[in-house]
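hi! just following up on the protien thing from before. the input was this:
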Amino acid sequence: MSNNARMTRTLRIRTGCVAALTLAVAATAGCSGESGSGGGTVTIGLLTSLSGVYKSEGTDQRDGFKLYLDTHGGKLGGRKIDLKVADEGDGPQTGLPAAKKLVKKDRVDALTGLTGGGTVAAVLPVTERSRIPMVGSIARPPIKNPKYVWHTSFMSDEPGAAMATYMKETVHGPVYAIGPDYQGGHDEMRGFTATFKKAGGKLANPGGKTTWTPFPKTTDYTPYLAKIAKSHAKAVYCFYAGKDAIDFVKQYAKSDASDIPLYSAGFLTEGTTLPAQGKAAKDIYSALNYSTDLDNDANRKFVSDWTAKHDAPPTTFAMASYDAAATLDKAIGDAARKGEVNSRTINKAIAGLGKIDSPRGTWEYSEKTHTPVQRWYLRQVRPDGKQLANIQVKDLATLGG
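and the predicted 3d structure came back as:
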């Protein structure tokens, strides 16, 4: 064989090998979040409380996200989704190990869910190091640098801030403030007390400071309720959720404080807590960013799809997680149209989403906090047919930013 023939044959072999290698790489790229515009599977981690005090809230988060997937063919942004679900439990002690597994072993392209503010703070360094977007869907504490952190619910102090001005205008006298002694409780109650005092309101608590109940071990609230009854308060504002909310409301209705009007963050009577509280919850006022009776097309579809699968109406937890899926749907689609789909391009796409059509009404992410700029609603527990429901009373305020 001549030298020219040998060179030609070698060149053909090398060219064939390069082509085969290129095809192999292309095939591999279509199997993860690092895929290009040609298609592939994106892996999403859903970390939420499926056990513990906030099991009902966490379950709604999971089901809200899954509802969006089910009604969109199991795809977000046109990409098939591999959803990895993990249990956050009662906080960072169980949530952090679960998050590390999702990030390091399952190699998720984005993390969503997250039920507790303490878990958000604990998990943040993990997602920041990996540059993975965290799209949370329950209240979030303040974060110095939210570059890779997004939330579809609200800042933890906003329910109280939304209610405080209204109570200052309508309650003629001091208000008693009470909540659970942990980070989420501190954030939630601070929103009320700081705004209420700024508006000129006074607390009925001793020393003008919030009364804290030990978390998660408090089940007997009667000693605290006895003090409220003797405080000369004209109203009570509280934050409790899950089982704590059920215990507090039932005991409140039987206590000497029962004649004092009760106001709260919306969590107190949201979801499965309300039917468990029964008549004890009647007339409670709450502030929240969502109500099932909101009159818009997106909400009508959401409520219809949800009630087709569930016996109870959807909650703000389900709605916010549904919106987290909508966020990722739009972001993954935008990233795919521009080229590669991976954690960094998804995060960049979220930053440019603009307005999001939601069951709560149209909202958009704040450039500063990466949480929604949205409207808040005053609700009251009233009869709706044969059942009690959180009925929208009026708009309270637009917060965020």
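Residues 1-38 have pLDDT under 50 and may be disordered.
The first strand starts at residue 41 and ends at 48.
cheers
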